[in-house]
Amino acid sequence: MNNREEQADQTGSYTSNQVPNPCPICLAPLVKESYLDACFHKFCYNCIVQWSRVVASKSSGQSASIKCPLCKTDNFSIIAGFDGTCFQRHYVDQDFGNRFTFSKAHKYRLQCYYSEPGILNDIFDVSRFWKSRKYRQSNMWLQSWLKRELQALMQEEDVDIVVHHIHGVIESFWTRIEHTRVVLKKPAEAYWQDNFRIAITEAAKPFLLARTDRFVNELELFLASGLNIEAYDAVYIQRLGWNTSGSITTNPVHQIVPFLHIFDVGSDQDE
């Protein structure tokens, strides 16, 4: 007999008055606390999974969403295993036994998004990247960086279509700069940087939602660094005060707990 059964046996049954903030489905203490992604109502993981399966079994076709048992809001995934830095996300229309598992690299990158923004601005000079037109230098690591970033943020393994989409927007933007000759009312680097951020935001927001702005910042930092992924990670981890396992060592940068990147030292002159 598990703890829940023992507690129920002693009292006869659970009621919402006996348990503070119980699971709305079983009315017992929450076991493996889980959230729905839109309304953020919380349930026992097994309870909400079973609920979604029952609802799906009564539907004529496979649904990509589930209505919250409490507020009837449409939700597309269940968030579970949240430990303050990372979590697992299970989509309603996917097999719950076949889910994406984080690697240490994915966990490290997701933790970076929970650190204070701008902690590397003194190391990777984004304004210099635009002023010196370093974007004309091809970045052979960009697609691999995008894939890891999107996998971490979207909690999905197959992000190839999204990577192709965002990488295509970036490449098209570089081509647009090279073939556009216009009289600008402000410095060219500021004009193109603003428009780059707008273009990437529009491309990424349908997939990253509230994390889009931070993603755009991280993308600019990686491009400005001119480093490969391993060297970029080493600089980031050192600044955050982490050891190689991703845990905090000495003098860590303050981390934000949520509710639910050495640049090219070459000349700044155009080549």
From TrEMBL:
Domain RING-type: 23-72
Keyword tags: Metal-binding, Zinc, Zinc-finger
Protein name (database record): RING-type domain-containing protein
InterPro entries: Znf_C3HC4_RING-type, Znf_RING, Znf_RING/FYVE/PHD, Znf_RING_CS
Zinc-finger in keyword set: yes
Domain of life: Eukaryota
GO molecular function: zinc ion binding
Lineage: Eukaryota, Viridiplantae, Streptophyta, Embryophyta, Tracheophyta
